[in-house]
Amino acid sequence: MSSVDVVVMKGDKVSKKGSAELPAELFDVQVNIPLIHQVVVAQLAAARQGTAKAKTRGEVSGGGTKPYRQKGTGRARQGSIRAPQFTGGGVVHGPVPRDYSQRTPKKMIAAALRGALSDRARDGRVHVVEKFVDGDKPSTKAALNVLAAATEPGKVLVVVERADELTWLSLRNVQHVHLIAADQLNAYDVLCSDAVVFTQGALDAFVAGAPQGKSVKAVATSTEAEQEVEA
């Protein structure tokens, strides 16, 4: 189990005080890159609308009359001006509405998230703040000060509690910040961000609700692997 400093805001002052524990079963597991790739591809596929549609020659209006007689013109015989070779004709093997979603077991999704978080944690890119705003009113300026003290500039994934309205209102319009609730955390958003910043409450909620059992080949922690070698 590793720990990170907690950024604390009091009034206008921002400092690092105390530490937060990052459980090894969530933040120090062996990373399975093919598994993460499969889960991310499935997530992006599920986000596709699948509404693309092209009309076939049977669906295009017009073309019911033979354009010219069968013989004697010296031209190739044609039965309809809505055939695929004509402008305005139908499309051969065009797209049709379909469902792009893939079946992905929950254990695979959870394992991919643990692997992505572990990768960020090993690089020192997982951070914890006590809160972003001190007071009862949202403040983007104050929240950005806390964020700057917690991590380096870049694209940041901020994980908060659903009830933390002050943080939502303070950071929702910041271009380089992506806000997400603790129960919606996923491998894709983690990998798309340079750093992950948890509020203390969001980290506690995530640790309490995340499945921590070993599954899908490569979620054994490095600590457990070392213990097996020593034994």
Automatic annotation (TrEMBL):
<dbReference type="InterPro" id="IPR002136">
    <property type="entry name" value="Ribosomal_uL4"/>
</dbReference>
<comment type="similarity">
    <text>Belongs to the universal ribosomal protein uL4 family.</text>
</comment>
<dbReference type="InterPro" id="IPR013005">
    <property type="entry name" value="Ribosomal_uL4-like"/>
</dbReference>
<dbReference type="GO" id="GO:0019843">
    <property type="term" value="F:rRNA binding"/>
</dbReference>
<keyword id="KW-0689">Ribosomal protein</keyword>
<dbReference type="GO" id="GO:1990904">
    <property type="term" value="C:ribonucleoprotein complex"/>
</dbReference>
<keyword id="KW-0694">RNA-binding</keyword>
<dbReference type="GO" id="GO:0003735">
    <property type="term" value="F:structural constituent of ribosome"/>
</dbReference>
<comment type="subunit">
    <text>Part of the 50S ribosomal subunit.</text>
</comment>
<dbReference type="InterPro" id="IPR023574">
    <property type="entry name" value="Ribosomal_uL4_dom_sf"/>
</dbReference>
<comment type="function">
    <text>Forms part of the polypeptide exit tunnel.</text>
</comment>
<dbReference type="GO" id="GO:0006412">
    <property type="term" value="P:translation"/>
</dbReference>
<dbReference type="Pfam" id="PF00573">
    <property type="entry name" value="Ribosomal_L4"/>
</dbReference>
<comment type="function">
    <text>One of the primary rRNA binding proteins, this protein initially binds near the 5'-end of the 23S rRNA. It is important during the early stages of 50S assembly. It makes multiple contacts with different domains of the 23S rRNA in the assembled 50S subunit and ribosome.</text>
</comment>
<feature type="region of interest" description="Disordered">
    <location>
        <begin position="51"/>
        <end position="100"/>
    </location>
</feature>
<protein>
    <recommendedName>
        <fullName>Large ribosomal subunit protein uL4</fullName>
    </recommendedName>
</protein>
<dbReference type="GO" id="GO:0005840">
    <property type="term" value="C:ribosome"/>
</dbReference>
<keyword id="KW-0699">rRNA-binding</keyword>
<keyword id="KW-0687">Ribonucleoprotein</keyword>
